[in-house]
């Protein structure tokens, strides 16, 4: 996909006026996640990506960064409930966040920069995933107040750093499909999906999302959710 022909700055950097809060973005219609060919295409896209499994900057492995990242992750999941965003939007924003930090170094101790980056990533993810995108002024950070123009400049920095490749894949695209394949004898698939979602969220708080591909995260979450309902022989048969 050529990012320069797919997106333009006005598409993602909405103006801060009275109409933008009610702006509706139509979602691209995707094939059903139960479709084998669709799942295969997602996995192929993951395989071609150079982001997963990359070595993060050493400076971003320090304790201060880990603490700052965890604060940002908790803020993202908290504010997404306030703003009514989908979990996939929050997760996508974290992929932007971790992709950015695998390519750029934020100076030690600049927690405000981490917070600003988190706001910009969530705002961009909302513009990709949500039908209604709130004003930038509604993305309140704990302890910091950023003007909309400052957030927009950070959005542009994120876009250029990620080469405008914003159509990310999240583990949520796989969960129902994997549950139906692995745990099809169960009559409580929705409960298992809910448990798997919880594991995905927990995972996102602990490690960089660039360490593992979304399909691997999804499968691990589903296996954990189905753990007490599968024997080793049954699991090996299903994987085969």
TrEMBL record:
Family annotation (SMART domains): CYCLIN
Leader peptide range in chain numbering: none
Keyword vocabulary terms for this entry: Cell cycle, Cell division, Cyclin
Biological processes, Gene Ontology terms: cell division
Protein name stated in the entry: Cyclin-like domain-containing protein
Domain Cyclin-like: start-end pairs: 74-160
Listed InterPro entries: Cyclin (IPR039361), Cyclin-like_dom (IPR013763), Cyclin-like_sf (IPR036915), Cyclin_N (IPR006671)
Family per record: Belongs to the cyclin family. Cyclin D subfamily.
Keyword Cell cycle recorded: yes
